[in-house]
Write a structure and sequence with these properties.
With 353 residues, the chain is mainly β. It is 0% helix and 40% strand. It is built from no helices and 26 strands. The strands form 8 sheets. It has a 4-stranded antiparallel beta sheet with strand order 3-6-5-4, with no helix packed on it. It has a 4-stranded antiparallel beta sheet with strand order 23-24-25-26, with no helix packed on it. It has a 3-stranded antiparallel beta sheet with strand order 1-2-22, with no helix packed on it. It is elongated and about 85 Å long.
């Protein structure tokens, strides 16, 4: 067991650190310091992605390009969604009030100046890149450019609010998903199942369509993934005790990414890892776990024991003036040095690391 010694009172804690991974490319764009992540937007090739913050900051990894951001602006409302602009490499950020911010992408209108009945919670672009939809929490749908209006749930009773919406691959329909997993299909969008009426550990937060339009994924805040139709289940983050905010699928639909508000990223299936605000092994950006493995008297240092031929022994120095040989596997201990008669641990005295 790889150990990192942490002295806490009389406890010696062992941390098993997450193994590191070399990012395939440096991050480009805004600083990630203090950034609260909203979503992730893949590049057209799927060999990169942009991570989007609620304050409008954008950070690009892999072959995804950085085309600008609103991270240096004072937004009226936070960013709630973002999408790629067709196959051109641009992207669009959408705020909770329906404000639209386009980068190397076309602007076709917004609801930023309107008095909305409910906040915008999701957005999706058309396949041509010449239009987009904005989706509101009450099921309202706002179509711009070549995006068609095919119906909405605005003014209709909902068991739970809408949390996202996505367009069909042919651009002739869209789905809305509620926080309870209820699905509402319009236009050419087919219904392939839902989680409405089923018990969920955490609410839904995101949705993605299968590339052929014959299915979709629903993503929950605990990392749960629910696949319907031709959408394949490729794993989930539900076994990790954390909250996920944004999800995205690869262009081929053979993988997906999940990102936490803090910037930890998990990849599943053939979705590659190209970097993240919080580094870590592939698909496992979680903090090291701590476990109490032994108790000593004010431990101040832990070192490998150079006299241990088997290599498993450690030396533990205690502030009171002792150094003990310790074998973690069986908790065997031997006193090596005793300076207690020559030192005092009161005040700022004693052995110090």
């Amino acid at each position: 067991m790889a150990l990192l010694a942490i002295a806490l009172g009389t406890a010696l804690l062992a941390a098993t650190p997450a193994s590191s991974q070399e990012d395939s490319s440096p991050a480009r764009g805004d600083s990630t310091l203090g950034m609260v992540i909203e979503t992730v937007v893949p590049s057209p090739s799927g060999q990169g992605y942009r991570i989007i913050g609620t304050d409008g900051r954008v950070v690009a990894y892999g072959d995804a390009t950085f085309e600008g951001s609103v991270g240096d602006l004072a937004l009226n409302q936070p960013i709630v969604d973002a999408f790629a602009d067709g196959d051109d490499g641009g992207y669009v950020l959408v705020a909770e009030d329906g404000g639209v911010f386009n980068f190397d992408a076309s602007f076709h209108g917004s609801t930023g100046s309107l008095d909305l009945n409910a906040p915008i919670v999701g957005a999706a672009g058309t396949p041509t890149g010449d239009g987009y939809w904005l989706f509101a929490a009450d099921g309202g749908v706002f179509a711009f450019g070549d995006a068609g209006f095919f119906g909405s749930m605005g003014g209709q009773p909902l068991n739970q609010p809408i949390v996202d919406g996505v367009g069909t691959p042919d651009g002739e329909g869209y789905w809305l998903v509620a926080s309870d997993g209820g699905i509402f299909a319009f236009g050419t969008a087919g219904f392939f199942g839902s989680m409405g009426g089923q018990p969920l550990n955490r609410p839904m937060v995101d949705m993605a369509p299968a590339p052929d339009g014959e299915g979709y994924w629903l993503f929950a805040a605990d990392g749960g993934v629910f696949a319907f139709g031709t959408a394949g289940f490729l794993g989930s983050g539900a076994e990790i005790n954390t909250t996920f905010q944004g999800f995205a699928i690869t262009p081929a639909g053979d993988g997906y990414w999940a990102v936490t508000p803090e910037g930890a990223l998990q990849n599943f299936g053939n979705a590659g890892r190209f970097g993240a605000p919080i580094s870590g092994p592939p698909g496992r950006d979680v903090a090291p776990s701590l476990e109490r493995v032994a108790s000593f008297t004010q431990p101040i240092a832990l070192r490998p024991n150079p006299l241990d031929a088997d290599g498993g022994g450690l030396l533990v120095a205690e502030r009171t003036g002792t150094i003990r040989a310790w074998w973690p596997d069986d908790d065997r201990r031997e006193l090596v040095v005793d300076l207690t008669a020559l030192t005092s641990a009161s005040g700022e005295r004693g052995l110090l690391s």
